[in-house]
Specification:
metal-binding, iron-sulfur, 17% strand, 44% helix, globular, 415 residues, alpha/beta, IspG_C
Length: 415
Amino acid sequence: MSQNSTSAGALGRHPTRLVRIGRVQVGSQVPIVVQSMTNTDTADHVATAIQIAQLARAGSELVRITVNNDESAKAVPKIVEQLAKMNVEVPIIGDFHYNGHKLLTDNPACAELLAKYRINPGNVGQGQKRDAQFAQIVELACKYDKPVRIGVNWGSLDQAVLARMMDANAQRAEPWDVGAVMREALIVSALESAQAAEDVGMAGDRIILSCKVSSVQDLIATYRELARRCDYPLHLGLTEAGMGSKGIVASTAALGVLLQEGIGDTIRVSLTPEPGGARTQEVIVAQEILQSMGLRAFTPMVTACPGCGRTTSTFFQELAQSVQSYVREQMPVWRDQYDGVENLTLAVMGCVVNGPGESKHANIGISLPGTGETPAAPVFIDGQKAMTLRGDNIAHEFRAILDEYVATKYPKKIQ
């Protein structure tokens, strides 16, 4: 999967260093990277490899897995082997809490095959053990030439740092409110941990930072200040964003503001899947945030009207859904065969009011008849009326037009 983008993807960003994670680069000089995380038991290497493959094929450029015990650490080589059999190549990140120093030491194959380590400064130990165990993970990262994400989290904040911030706040003539102190503690924990990693010997261009919270306004405030105070690449995302529309809206609101301000180099949308829902939804939402903002292009997007009293038929809704699903199914094939197909625009409109106009603005558009209109559907290609579809086979004919357009308009990649 290439790190392609529209021109806006690498412009207007808060300047940060460039970090390599396997074959993927993260930093302000390159397009913003989409990542995700599995929710399988990592020890089940087959199920985990299958889900990694699903996430990668959906467009996740980095995939994180939980490494929480010896069984999961020993499964990493098997997961990598299974992915190779499936012809899936994506950098895998190990997520460590509490015992990462021991797991990486005891399982050198795991340490070598992971593309990056995620360290939570609040969960590496207490007191003197904390510093020693943090240093041990960093030393192993240096030994195996792996970058790290120092990921501070609101729910597991280093209590020593928080206590220090609270004590300092009590000495202020005008103390900050509790939320401001917590945000400052998150930032200080991230920056002090990054400096500690560099003191151990890690290069500054091997470190990514994150400060995750579950509140939209707190996330925006925290990252604005974090970006002001460092040039490490920043990983964005609400922690525990939630389920369904709540998680999507909250993530979009928070990330949209920060991305518009040029803050953020890699993102994850931490959605709670609906029961039986696909894990890949978080990848699609992350892509659509970036694509809607004009920062990346991943897959052709379908413009469709919301419907009104002129569109009592549901056919235009069904066609829009069918076309969007078809495009997503075809993208893995198209992406490998054609250059630039992700920039294709489509429109499926439901009546004469905005139908022809919106259809002309898209590469391919169809204006379906509304209530009382002539039962004909003009199709526009690159702004010009190309044909009119009628009858019961419109959906199939429109997909055939789409296939032909892709095959003839986009140059084939050299294999």
